[in-house]
Amino acid sequence: MELKDAFSRVNAVSTDPDDLHTHGFSSNIYHPGALHSVIVYPESTEDVVKVVKIATKYRMPVVPYSGATSLEGHFRGHEVGGICVDLNRMDKIIQINEKDSDMVCQPAVRWMDINELLRDKGIPLFFPIDPGPGATIGGMLSTGCSGTNAVRYGTAKGEWFLNATVVLPSGEVIKTRRRSRKSAAGFDLTKLFIGAEGTLGIVTEVTIRLAPLLPTNVAVVHFLDVRAATEASIEIINQGAGIQCVELIDALSMKATNNYGKSKRKWQEKDSLFFKFQGPTDASLKETAQMVKKISEKHGSTGFALAKNQKEAEEIWTDRKNLYYSGLSLIPGSKGITTDVCVPISKLPDLIHETRKDLDSVGLVSPIIGHVGDGNFHALLLFKNDEEFKLAKEAVGRISRRAIELEGTCTGEHGVGIGKKEYLVEELGEGTVELMKTIKKAVDPLGLFNPGKLYPDRTRQEK
Ligand SMILES: Cc1cc2nc3c(=O)[nH]c(=O)nc-3n(C[C@H](O)[C@H](O)[C@H](O)COP(=O)(O)OP(=O)(O)OC[C@H]3O[C@@H](n4cnc5c(N)ncnc54)[C@H](O)[C@@H]3O)c2cc1C
């Protein structure tokens, strides 16, 4: 009631059952959803402050919500209900500073829209962090995401988010720093919120850095097996080739792409690498292509194919970007658990090889795709019933622990949400997890911000 009084605008507060369902459940995730009590649609930082103050007064959980593309149950409701803060009406670009290569925007601006707008305006810059289609700047910052471009541009944890305006659980509004590219003024508080998954505050404005738009081209090459493909990719990266992306697409994923029916071509169903080469000039693109072809051949590759023009390059890359949905289409009506392990790149061939063997031995249909340039890959474990779901969950546990043993992580880019909490102590150690909890308690003493996510429930690992 107090929320409705605080927001007299039409449709600013909703308890519509369909709306509640959309915000608490997601077809992208395998975790059971849970409903929020109410959805609020703020339009400004001041609106967010109002919501936070009401939530604090009534001790209600607060869950920020933006693009809703996260994969680990990040935005589902809490068991006791609570307020879901849907930021999608805060989707304005506030300032483009072309000379400084940065942009100030509200949190619900989508990375794809930013790049389209810059292209339409003829501004030769782009934002290189590229997670799921539909992801927003606020959600991307909050999950610490990355994507296919990470091999060249790094992740959200790099220097792409310069400054954030955040409404803290106390209702206070802070800016984490100013717009300058560098700052050594104390702790890096922007980074405190990167990967905090909405547990420390709500981001209401962000300054992002943009990169120069350079000419690119795309190539595909096939290998005898995943190990040969991965080893070739390591050698290519270590030779310093001009690579923007190198993606492993295994034979099953290639088959899925053919099955899905949206591709403009019929792919060979072999373990393959998809490359995006990057300029600065057309001559350097050609040189990179030659170098990649030669190193791939050394690892037994076949069928190296370079896109003949921009249209072909875009079509091929769209096939790569559709892989999550084409993978799901291998078993109509199935759901998928996406693993997200990341290891030092030299350990990747062994880890992928072991994972393939493991998944085949339990009989799960599981296409594998990898951001192999970063040592990160995803197996999409398909399931249709409780028995397969149990097998898939157990396999996720084995894959995650194997990665941790190899000095890696259970999540290279998707974040923790509720799905990866159980691995954190094993991966980071009790002291590190306790420090995270201490920070959480200091910033959100009532524990109202996105409760039940990110922090393991108990310090000791549940076995
Ligand atoms: C097909 C597909 C492909 C994907 N590929 C990739 C990939 O390649 N790389 C990758 O990293 N991820 C990938 N993802 C996952 C997803 O796109 C990322 O996790 C993304 O960063 C989530 O952004 P979002 O706007 O959808 O956030 P949401 O899902 O809305 O929210 C994510 C989390 O951030 C919090 N949050 C949202 N907005 C705010 C805010 N303004 N302030 C504070 N907290 C906030 C939420 O409470 C939640 O905890 C993929 C997902 C799909 C469906």
TrEMBL record:
<dbReference type="GO" id="GO:0008720">
    <property type="term" value="F:D-lactate dehydrogenase (NAD+) activity"/>
</dbReference>
<dbReference type="InterPro" id="IPR016171">
    <property type="entry name" value="Vanillyl_alc_oxidase_C-sub2"/>
</dbReference>
<keyword id="KW-0285">Flavoprotein</keyword>
<dbReference type="InterPro" id="IPR016166">
    <property type="entry name" value="FAD-bd_PCMH"/>
</dbReference>
<dbReference type="GO" id="GO:1903457">
    <property type="term" value="P:lactate catabolic process"/>
</dbReference>
<keyword id="KW-0560">Oxidoreductase</keyword>
<dbReference type="Pfam" id="PF02913">
    <property type="entry name" value="FAD-oxidase_C"/>
</dbReference>
<dbReference type="GO" id="GO:0071949">
    <property type="term" value="F:FAD binding"/>
</dbReference>
<dbReference type="InterPro" id="IPR016169">
    <property type="entry name" value="FAD-bd_PCMH_sub2"/>
</dbReference>
<dbReference type="InterPro" id="IPR036318">
    <property type="entry name" value="FAD-bd_PCMH-like_sf"/>
</dbReference>
<comment type="similarity">
    <text>Belongs to the FAD-binding oxidoreductase/transferase type 4 family.</text>
</comment>
<dbReference type="Pfam" id="PF01565">
    <property type="entry name" value="FAD_binding_4"/>
</dbReference>
<feature type="domain" description="FAD-binding PCMH-type">
    <location>
        <begin position="30"/>
        <end position="213"/>
    </location>
</feature>
<dbReference type="InterPro" id="IPR004113">
    <property type="entry name" value="FAD-bd_oxidored_4_C"/>
</dbReference>
<dbReference type="InterPro" id="IPR016164">
    <property type="entry name" value="FAD-linked_Oxase-like_C"/>
</dbReference>
<keyword id="KW-0496">Mitochondrion</keyword>
<dbReference type="GO" id="GO:0005739">
    <property type="term" value="C:mitochondrion"/>
</dbReference>
<dbReference type="GO" id="GO:0004458">
    <property type="term" value="F:D-lactate dehydrogenase (cytochrome) activity"/>
</dbReference>
<protein>
    <recommendedName>
        <fullName>D-lactate dehydrogenase (cytochrome)</fullName>
        <ecNumber>1.1.2.4</ecNumber>
    </recommendedName>
</protein>
<keyword id="KW-0274">FAD</keyword>
<dbReference type="InterPro" id="IPR006094">
    <property type="entry name" value="Oxid_FAD_bind_N"/>
</dbReference>
<keyword id="KW-0809">Transit peptide</keyword>
